[in-house]
Amino acid sequence: NAGVTQTPKFQVLKTGQSMTLQCAQDMNHEYMSWYRQDPGMGLRLIHYSVGAGITDQGEVPNGYNVSRSTTEDFPLRLLSAAPSQTSVYFCASSRRLAGETQYFGPGTRLLVL
Amino acid sequence: AQKITQTQPGMFVQEKEAVTLDCTYDTSDQSYGLFWYKQPSSGEMIFLIYQGSYDEQNATEGRYSLNFQKARKSANLVISASQLGDSAMYFCAMREPMGASKIIFGSGTRLSIRP
Lengths: 113, 115
What we know:
The complex is a heterodimer of chains A (about 110) and B (about 120). Chain A has about 110 residues and is an all-beta fold. Chain A has strands spanning about 5, 10-15, 20-25, 30-35, 45-50, 55, 65, 75-80, 85-95, 105, 110. Chain A contains no helices and 11 strands. In chain A, strands 2, 4, 5, 6, 9, 10 and 11 form a 7-stranded mixed beta sheet that branches. Chain A is globular and about 40 Å long. Chain A starts with a strand and ends with a strand. Chain B is an all-beta fold and about 120 residues long. Chain B has strands at about 5, 10-15, 20, 25, 35-40, 45-50, 60, 65-70, 75-80, 90-95, 105, 110-115. In chain B, strands 2, 5, 6, 10, 11 and 12 form a 6-stranded mixed beta sheet that branches. Chain B has a 4-stranded antiparallel beta sheet with strand order 3-9-8-7, with no helix packed on it. In chain B, strands 1-4 form a two-stranded antiparallel sheet. Chain B starts with a strand and ends with a strand. Chains A and B meet through strand 4, strand 5, strand 9 and strand 10 of A and strand 6 and strand 11 of B.
């Protein structure tokens, strides 16, 4: 199993550009989430999904869109990039069971100029 | 609303000593799960230990144990016999209720082990 994969590893955008961060998992996990981690801070939840076709907002959803058409994939779209969205983005997945930890991808480092 | 607080931004500990990382949480639910993760300088998130709110015993995983005090709403991580490789950021996290999809994180504690 590859676990949770994220692409790209690193991206530079100009203000106003749009892009999609890709996330895929091959563990058949129901739950998937996107977090952002700013320097020296913890992870803040952007959006999450409890299954294909179902998504919901986390703590900091503004400026981001998600969709989940399959169990495996959970892309995160930046609609119009802003310097405030410079961050490291983590995707995570888990099973729908109490006590189950989340499995994290390696992260995408995004720089918005 | 659920909240996780880690009050120690940074700690320095001598190698081979035990260290306690503090975590307090706020929740109105009786059913929740608490997690600790380690993030080394390479950036990946590594799961360390889990404690369910209904678990009567404190969780242990090798050198890691979780000092769970439900009435005080605290879930401190104890690392015994610290090693140089323990130097990292440590995050406390909570899932409420227990089987929910959302997990929220504290701001983290940076642990540095001195040789």
